[in-house]
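**Discrete fold encoding**
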Amino acid sequence: MNQIAFLLVPGLHLLDLAGPAQVFSTAAQAGHPYRLTYHAEQEGVPTAQGLTVQATTDWPRLTSDDILLVPGWHQDPGAPHTPPVGERTAARIAAHHAAGGLVASVCAGAFALGHAGLLDGRRCTTHHRLQDVLARRHPRATVIRDVLYVTDDRVVTSAGIASGIDLALHLAAARHGPRTAARIARAMVVYARRNGDEPQASAMLRHRAHLSDTVHHAQDLIDTGYTRTLPLADLAAASGVSERTLSRRFTAATGRTPLRYQQELRLERAEHLISQGATTEAAAHAVGFADARMLRRLRATAPRQTA
């Protein structure tokens, strides 16, 4: 069982903690073995919203498969700098990363990672109001502005408040695939965004930013069987609607027909196979095309995805 260890700091923003915690607890409910633990330098941690949360003062026993995540706290950009955590805690954060573990932060949590020395020589981000402060306090870091999250050598930083959900969905997608992340997002009734600072958006997530259960169900079927022929009649019957209704709802929700969505999944997978050394013909057959002509046509007309 993998552990998600949250390090809590006084002045904690509740959503910085609750968003990622909800993502990983939803993943656990879906069958992925996660255990969430909460740690601090004091048992009672006051939050910026006036609620005190309880944590253990025992440092977690972590393995390289575990994630250490630091939610943000209320940080006045003009206030004098004080280290967000003590030297012993900072050393423990650095030690987890040195042992091969992943360390992540939300919002002002980046300052704790900076105090641990993990931002030096790395790209990072934080809340837009704190970007200049972070850059001044950690001049050896490269602060990337106006993005939701940045990943650099197992150090993952995200912007403010709600972006912790995007960060956690990204980590879930990296570990379990975009389909799992999309299902978690759907269960939480949030948009499945992955627009960090690099081109990493999957078609399975790009077109899940809607609330149509019928279309989500049809997408689930296509996601699992996109290499096969999927007649519209079969998709509609499995989704409990007519072909015309499914086509109308699918296009309204995603901006493309079910067939076009299936082709995008095939194209994305084929591009990956080609990047790994497969020939166009082999990639075409692997994703379900009878020959390479359709794949070549799709590659020639497809827009390039950007972050």
About this structure: The chain has a mean pLDDT of 90. Strands lie at 2-8, 34-40, 44-46, 52-54, 67-70, 102-106, 123-124, 142-143, 149-152, 155-158. Residues 258-275 form the longest helix (18 residues). The two ends are 32 Å apart (CA to CA).
